[in-house]
Amino acid sequence: MFRSYLAKITGSSFSGGSNHSSEAKNGAGVAASMENSHGDGICQICGDEIAIAGNGRPFVACRYCFFPVCQACVEYETRRGTAACANCKQKYDLNPGSYEDHESEDEMQYSEQGGKLTDQKNEQIAESMLHGQMSYGRADDHDMPRTLQTIELQDPNDAPIRSEVANPKNIHPFPYSSTDAYREDATSVNTWKERVENWKSKQEKLNGRLPEARYVNEEGKNFADLDENGGRDEESPMMDEARQPLSRKVSLPSSRINPYRMVIILRLVILGFFFRYRLLNPVPHAYGLWLTSIICEIWFALSWILDQFPKWFPIDRETYLDRLALRYEKEGEISMLAPVDIFVSTVDPMKEPPLVTANTVLSILAVDYPVDKVSCYVSDDGSAMLTFEAMSETAEFARKWVPFCKNFNLEPRAPEVYFSQKIDYLKDKVQPNFVKERRAMKREYEEFKVRINALVGKAHKIPAEGWIMKDGTPWPGNNTKDHPGMIQVFLGHSGGLDTEGNELPRLVYVSREKRPGFNHHKKAGAMNALVRVSAVLTNAPFFLNLDCDHYINNSKALREAMCFLMDPIVGRKVCYVQFPQRFDGIDAHDRYANRNTVFFDINMKGLDGVQGPVYVGTGCVFRRQALYGYEPPLKPKKQSMACDCLTALLCGPHPKKAKAKKSGKGSKPKPNPKAVQTAPKPNLGSIEEGVEGYDDERALLMSKKNFEQRFGHSTVFLESVLFEDGGVPHSASPAELLKEAIHVISCGYEDKTDWGQEIGWIYGSVTEDILTGFKMHARGWRSIYCMPHRAAFKGTAPINLSDRLNQVLRWALGSVEIFLSRHCPLWYGYSGRLKLLERLAYINTIVYPLTSLPLLVYCTLPAICLLTGKFIIPTISNFASLWFISLFLSIFATGILEMRWSGVSIEEWWRNEQFWVIGGVSAHLFAVIQGFLKVLAGIDTNFTVTSKGSEEGDEFGELYLFKWTSLLIPPTTLLVINMVGIVAGISDALNNGYSSWGPLFGKLFFAFWVIVHLYPFMKGLMGRQNRTPTIVVVWSVLLASIFSLLWVKIDPFLVRVTGPDTKLCGINC
């Protein structure tokens, strides 16, 4: 068609005579031929009909090639500043019009020049039309780039987006195309039309809905306007927003991070000179104290190195929710976002109030995510009928609460937190009925609270015959240690509708089977049961786990995680996305460092620049295949001319290529789920030797016997394992799925399988979170740390001193258990996939409780020195004192620069330093003792906490609540002996005169260092009325007295009188 159209142009041009009237006729023929060849005056950009100008002729914008375009498109290009023809790239006239307008201008030019258009000019016009249609994107003639280039903002080592689409459900709508393929597409006339139409519609959508996102390269050029040679092309269309990455790394400014690194290196150098001086200058009369202090200081230095160097590469991250919506939620189409299962775990409703769990579930059901993609599973590991009935009430209230949240876009979506906020709730609300609806919903929630409280009050009195359900049957979980598995679907996609008739997310109650004689592995076993139940019922490729007191504070939290997990470049290597923990109900001063901002805002950011943050137990979105024990997809090794030795040393070697192993009876291949995704999904019943269409390594795992040994004997669950992108068999009925779900939560299902060993949450420690994350990182996966501006999740923290110490005790005990297990990072996981700095971070997480031993001794040394008159440091010169001063200055400089790049306040940093000492000499010490007794001797000791009463009616009344625990004795004893030492030292100096004050200052400094760090503990011990419990005073004074008598002489404050030696001169001397 185009060649015939070209023939019309050339024929009409060459048939003209010598006068301009004949040329005008030929020009009219050109316009008419164009109109006929392009569909009766249809705009080739937007497809609309070209309007008729005032002279009765079709509107013509370009006088060079007469490309059919409507006036609206011309005005659109003019507003953008381009104003150029989409075909020949010539600028439009300022006053475009019909052909007669151009005809009159041609006549004026002709009369001035006194000639006519030559054949050469007609040939140029024809050639430009032919070349423009057939060779779109040639750099020698046009500025239009051949390929739309993308800048990798995630990881420079990542491979580019591949052209093949893996799966229609896991869609990659904008594949990378080569130059040759692009040239072939440019040969078609319709290609240009489709591309321009698509580009124009996308740009109008972006200009109307989304903010403009522009990136600048190193030379300051606009990223969207760079052609294939790196040059600026002002006439090229802006890069499609949906093609760009869903997230990017944001490196810290060099002005902040470089001084921080320089101070770390300087501190290492100073430490070297400091220890050189300490080792070469012993204290003759206090050799034991000197050697003890040296050992403690060396341990502190090693502990600092383990904690400091994983923070060498801190980064921030940004997510782009608008691009996620453009890529996976196109208008008028079904959402392609991945389904997500959400796990909530609870045990004892008396310690974990059902109202708190209900608020967490309500925030999940109201999350800003497609309702058919969300399923909530509540694990009741205590099989309490109270929890079951509370979930039933929650499901009914959710029918009213969820539409209210979504209609008015509320944040947060936990009703208890929302209605208790002390803010202007009318801000940014424009709906006239909002106030009325809010009042009605608040009344509904108060009635809901009354019903929950009535259930709680009823549960305090357990009937002798046990609980009876509404239908008259006994509650199956009356015996919490011997009951069958229970599953109840409260809300489902088939019948769970809200008050407005819209679907609600699925809500499932799960209580796994428990029988005497089985090890149920506490929370880790409950989480693995949820993994199997969800795989049978919904099988989402990703799932989020939350504690029952952690509600969703940011309704877009799941979308934030999907920006990483569904990113086509880096998403396939990400095992989980960890969010920081944030807490409500903490006093402004945060006396016991409950917010833990130093860990979440400094340490975790540093790990994100290495291989990813550690898993902290809640607020984490997992990739299901990673938790099944599979390895990440290996990228091809890039060949380089030189080796970056520093990067290889810090971040670990490149992964080795997997070698094919011959299958034998004793061989057990490593699992890798990254099969060819276009292969048909297999039916496990027909699996014996392998599945056609999968790669060789995956085919080795396709035998049914091998799968049963790893995952257990459940055909439905084993089939779900093969569905990498999620989904359940359509042939299975709901009744069959529920029957199979009951089977996979039976107490004997995990026997002789890899559950808890290589699959799911790993057993062997009370801190199963650290162990589980470590196993995934050791396989080569990486994790992501996501810190949105609005906190994703919020929970409650124990603000009471005793509860806080017991929480820290539990964490430290889990670290000691890992240290004494085969999964210790000191000797496990040396396969070349765990990076060095990541290993140092994990080593630090399991050895930090051992620091309690040297810390306790070091905090005792000031009192010993004051009571004995000896010191751990000899008399130093002015030059030697410079090393001590430099060391203290470098310590302070490191902390100040950390606060500078992380944004942590000085108060939060200081509270963390104080509680490091408080927890170290109490909870960590007891954790080491309990852990060694439990692992080595099999003795399980528990430190109980008993409440002694508190005042009611105070927002922070629990802060002053005293609960007796043996964890309080060691720090109290340290306080007493250091105070006694200060009194003894000052008294001795007063008796001995001026010369004894100089050595005293160093001893007093160390004693005050201990007391200042223990000050929050002392303040919490005194309580609101400054009344210390008698039992604490008795134990502390007793221990301090016994210790003091070992070191203090009979007459410590009297001047010592020296007489003659009776052994030399006798009694009559």
Description:
With 1069 residues, the chain is α/β, with parallel strands linked by helices. The protein is built from 35 helices and 17 strands. Strands 7-8-6-5-9-13-11-14 form an 8-stranded mixed beta sheet, with helices on both faces. It has a 3-stranded mixed beta sheet with strand order 10-15-12. The longest helix is centred in the N-terminal third of the chain and has 27 residues, at 254-280. Residues 1-39, 96-119, 121-189, 206-239, 640-649, 653-694, 943-953 and 1049-1057 have low confidence and may be disordered.
Biggest β-sheet, characterized? 8 strands, mixed
Radius of gyration: 37 Å
- Low-pLDDT sequence parts: 1-39, 96-119, 121-189, 206-239, 640-649, 653-694, 943-953, 1049-1057
Strand order of the largest sheet: 7-8-6-5-9-13-11-14
Classify the oligomer: single chain
What is the general shape?
globular
* Terminal CA distance: 136 Å
Q: What is the strand content?
A: 5-15%
Helix content: 40-55%
What would you call the structural class? alpha/beta
> How many alpha or pi helices?
35
Number of strands: 17
Average residue pLDDT? 75
Domain Cellulose synthase RING-type zinc finger: 40-104
Protein name: Cellulose synthase
Pfam family, one: zf-UDP
InterPro entries: Cellulose_synth, CES_Znf_RING, Nucleotide-diphossugar_trans, Znf_RING/FYVE/PHD
